[in-house]
Design goal:
alpha/beta; 10 strands; about 15% strand; single chain; 8-stranded mixed β-sheet; about 280 residues
């Protein structure tokens, strides 16, 4: 009999429960499309790419401006379970927020296992501070700042919500309790200790004060991914922190991103609403 390692699941079941790529048949095709569209987008908007916010090779960010003065700044953190992908892959997603009158920043960060998860969290915090401190010299960051991210980026979004620099958050299909990732295949590269998993789990460190957040997920996602968003929302509500749950019917872990890229998509319009008022 296989040992139960997490919420009634064996290691094999837990591996499957967090493997978004295997769960979505066209995940590779979708990612290829993001890369192709993003290459074109960056070529057409090459004015402010790869600005350094820190000393490490991936401590860089890209800025895209909508043209409005003191526009809200939509700041996006890429996913890939903290060990894959790059900011360049997702540049095409700027189209939706730009069309809704937002400037956009894409953040890079060092990947595991080169960096520990606590170190990655610290890099993202420094990038956010840089945007407030240095952004105005580049024409961004004087209005409201909305931090967003997908998958691992949703987790990293949650780690910024107590920062004074952050006005609102939009976390998409995120991980808010890291412990199951320590117990499954992801830890081959993450190399998390139990202490690090606890330290970096937003659901275990609810602040006294937090920016409002919209927690979005697709109802076609893996059950564990849906549970993560629902549980974090309920924990925030119980702690009296502003939180909104946004389940998107039928969407999976990859198709949900269509709603950010499209100007009238549910995620792009949610970002614009947060940029206006935080509500």
């Amino acid at each position: 009999m296989s040992e139960i390692v997490w919420r009634g699941m064996t290691r094999a079941e837990l591996d499957k429960g967090y493997n978004n790529t295997d769960a979505v048949a066209d995940s590779g095709t979708r990612r290829d499309g993001w890369i192709a569209r993003s290459e074109r987008f960056r070529a057409e908007h090459a004015e402010s790419l790869d600005l350094a916010y820190g000393p490490l090779p991936r401590n860089k960010l890209d800025l895209f401006r909508c043209g409005a003065a003191k526009a809200p700044l939509f700041t996006f953190i890429h996913g890939g379970y903290w060990q894959r992908n790059a900011k360049e892959t997702f540049a095409c997603m700027a189209a939706g927020p730009l069309a809704n009158g937002m400037d956009v920043a894409f953040l890079g960060y060092t990947l595991a296992p080169e960096a520990t998860l606590p170190a990655i969290v610290a890099e993202i915090a420094e990038a956010v501070r840089w945007l407030r401190r240095e952004g105005p010299r580049h024409g961004v960051g004087q209005g409201r700042l909305v931090v967003s991210g997908w998958s691992a980026g949703g987790h990293l979004t949650a780690t910024t919500l107590a920062m004074d620099e952050v006005d609102a958050g939009l976390a998409i299909s995120g991980i808010y309790d890291v412990e199951p990732c320590r117990l499954n295949y992801l830890n081959d590269n993450l190399r998390l200790t139990a202490a690090q998993a606890a330290e970096t789990s937003p659901i275990l460190h609810l602040p006294k004060k937090s920016a409002p957040v919209v927690l979005a997920y697709g109802t076609g996602e893996l059950p564990e991914l849906q549970r993560q968003s629902i549980a974090y929302h309920e924990a925030r509500q119980a702690a009296g922190l502003p939180s909104e749950l946004l389940p998107l019917a039928g969407l999976n872990h990859f198709s949900i991103m269509d709603q950010l890229e499209a100007a009238d998509g549910s995620l792009a319009t949610a970002a614009a609403r947060l940029g206006r008022s935080g509500g």
